[in-house]
Amino acid sequence: MSITSLEGKRFAEMVIQGANNLSANAKMVDALNVFPVPDGDTGTNMNLSMTSGAKEVQNNVQEHIGKVASALSKGLLMGARGNSGVILSQLFRGFGKYIEHKSSLTSEEFALGLEHGVETAYKAVMKPVEGTILTVAKDSAQKAVAVAKTEKNFIRLMEEIVKEARASLNRTPDLLPVLKEVGVVDSGGQGLLHVYEGFLAELKGEQLTDPSTLPSMNELVSAEHHKNAQSFMSTADIVFGYCTEFMVKFEDQKLSEHPFSEEQFRNDLSEYGDSLLVISDDELVKVHIHSEQPGTVLSYGQKYGSLINMKIENMREQHSSILEGTQHQLTADTRKTQLKQKQEYGIVTVSMGEGIAELFKSIGATVVIEGGQTMNPSTEDIVKAVEEVNAEKVLILPNNKNIIMAAEQAAEVIAGEVQVVPTKSVPQGMAALLAFNPSAPITENKQGMSEALDYVKTGQITFAVRDTNIDGVTIAKDDFMGIADGKIITSHQFQVEAAKQLLDTMLDKDSEILTILYGEDATTEEVEAITSYVNKKFEDVEIEVHNGKQPLYSFIFSIE
How would you class 458 by CB atoms within 10 Å of its CB: exposed for 0-12, middle for 13-18, buried for 19 or more? Predict the structure, then answer.
């Protein structure tokens, strides 16, 4: 069988099978952690990101491959979760941009598109690290470009891409020492390989997974965000009662009278409501808005072309409708306090654990997104949270290194003054919040809050999921590990002893305050044992204790 031209419909099927194959192997990808803890959930993040992209493709299947690729790019952009998901979205964003005007592809054009995607992804990462998904994407793209110069058959080209991706993945431990130390390959690279394997299987007419055993795209993707918001407010709280969604298909005659600018379009529509989302390309613009005047909104859209795919729902009638199973909901208390008037400043922060969420709100957070180590919020989750803040200036505190890229991508999507303070832990988020100055400009606040991160140390106690040796520490499965600012310091079979050993290395003569956040797996007796130990050995250190109710980490220590 020979395929020498790739059209949109076939590419759409490749994307769907790639997403299905990744979904089927997501748990295996999750298991490839560089630390013996559930760190990052790479498979989960990539799966949710790719699923979002595949859903958008399913809604835009057509022969023009450039348009299908653009749909994939949009879906991935808004669904991107965690560093791996954001990088995946950037790979296909660059690919989609390169081929956006092409109705079909030759093998060489496909290869050059992959190469362009790699360039885009590398630019999106401030400090690219080799031995990761970036390396696997780069090596396989370079192989594709070389092979495509003489190979016109897409099946053989994709076979070479998969072969090189697998070889590159097997080389990742040689490039990233921590992988070799633990004995795994890079999880993000493994996820990308599963996507490419799905691409190849579709080209060859094979089925890697049984679609009937997988959840449908509609089951995996959260429904519109207004449906979740309804359960947390009374009918009287709904200021803009009509959820209005539509698309405008551009018309040349109207564009000559009213040239289209996405930024201006978004700014104009923002006067008519909230929860505004605008996505455009060369042929159409897609709009979602909550408004009291849907007719006015539609009339405004008609200035640029004809209306298609219109949907208007009365949210006051449907406020009790809740989408079950959504994994990232804003807290109920925050939902109830939706602001009627735009305030000057708002702060969006990410929290794992009900107690930590309450603590963040008590020291100034406006909106708290539930998420963290095992379930990173997506770009779209963060966009929605920023919209909910309803403020002129918004600061985002990710509180996890694996969420920073998604937060930065959200800040780029949103019009207005939005800045990300690169907090990597809950203690850093708390320190940043306490440094916030409501009277300072947003850039000055970002600088001051970022500087505050240098004055706090983060300690964590969690359990090991496998036997290993890392950073010179021998770890047995189910042992408790003490981690100081991301580095494993100690391991012990008893949780309290691990905490004592960790605090011995972190507390010193300059330490003034120790904040203890205890989680779901900690007992009050263990908390008392740790506080008693610190009081006796470090008597000048003031101790604060809060029930964070966080999963995974039985103790989080903040030292100032």
Answer: buried
Per-residue tokens: 530: 């740790």
- 361's CB contacts (< 8 A; 6+ apart) are 333, 334, 368
Residue (of 527, 510, 508, 511) closest to 519 by Cα position: 527
- What's residue 326's pLDDT? 34
Helices 8-24 and 187-203: crossing angle, nearest 10°? 130
Is residue 271 classed exposed, middle or buried when 0-12, 13-18 and 19+ CB atoms within 10 A define those classes? exposed
Q: Where are the beta strands (DSSP E) in 252-342?
A: 273-280, 284-291, 305-314
Query: Among the residues of 286-441, which ranges form H helices?
Result: 294-301, 332-336, 354-362, 379-389, 404-413, 426-434
Q: What is the pLDDT of residues 4-49, one digit of tens each?
A: 999 999 999 999 999 999 998 888 888 776 544 545 578 888 999 9
Q: How far apart are CA 53 and CA 57, in angstroms?
A: 6
**527 with 533: CB under 8 angstroms?**
no
Q: Please, are residues 54 and 217 in contact by the beta-carbon 8 Å criterion?
A: yes
Is 431 within 8 Å of 526 (Cβ atoms)?
no
Q: Please give the Cα distance from 200 to 13 (Å, whole number).
A: 11
Which are the contacts of 311, defined by CB distance < 8 A and separation ≥ 6? 243, 244, 245, 246
Q: What does the DSSP 8-state code read for residue 292?
A: S
Which of 257, 224, 246 has its CA nearest to residue 301? 246
What tokens does 226 get? 């207004």
CA distance 396 to 365: 10
* Amino acid letter, residue 374: T
Entry field: residues in the chain:
560
